[in-house]
Amino acid sequence: MTKIKINAEIEKDGESFLFYVNISNISEETLKLNLSNNTGGLVRETVHLYDRNKDRLHKGVSYMMPIDDATHVASIETGESAQLILKAKLEEIENDLFLDFKGANFNVKQDETYYFQIEYLDEKSNMAPFNID
Fold it and tell me: In which domain of life is the source organism classified (predicted)?
């Protein structure tokens, strides 16, 4: 049975955010996981944002990206971890502010706190808080 533990941390880099997702293998076997977000599918299927009341936000536009290399299978040995980094940037479109990931975006507001969570293989990460300044 596949058992993983997920942890998320966030770093702000100018108008961009870097979401560091660590996936730890706590099962008794080597795991082979496709951790690629080349088409944006990983974000569309696994990333959730919540408002300050921890109510889930709906995704805005979801879109496919051209495929560069659709397969990025990571082998994670028992007791080891793999990290993936998801980048998002703030974009203003017609007076609305969006946190735009590769594959999907979320409508956000200035001076608000949000929570990032990733759900993968039936496991959820911590709800990592971040502010839109």
Answer: Bacteria
Confirm or reject CATH 2.60.40.2970 for domain 4-132, answering yes or no: yes
pLDDT in tens, 11-20: 999 889 999 9
DSSP summary character for residue 64: -
Q: pLDDT digit string (tens) for 50-73?
A: 999 999 999 877 666 666 655 678
* H or E stretch at 97: strand 96-101
Q: Give the distance, in angstroms, between the CA of residue 57 and the centroid of all CA atoms in the same chain.
A: 14
* Predicted structure pTM score: 0.89
3-state DSSP helix/strand/coil % of the chain, to nearest 5: 5, 60, 40
Instruction: Classify burial at 96, counting beta carbons within 10 Å of its beta carbon; exposed 0-12, middle 13-18, buried 19 or more.
Output: exposed
Dist. CA 9–CA 81, nearest whole Å: 14
Side-chain half-sphere exposure of 49, counting CA atoms within 13 A:
26
Question: Which DSSP string corresponds to 5-63?
Answer: EEEEEEEEETTEEEEEEEEEE-SSS-EEEE---TTSHHHHHHEEEE-TT-PBPPEEEE-
Domain residue limits, the chain: 4-132
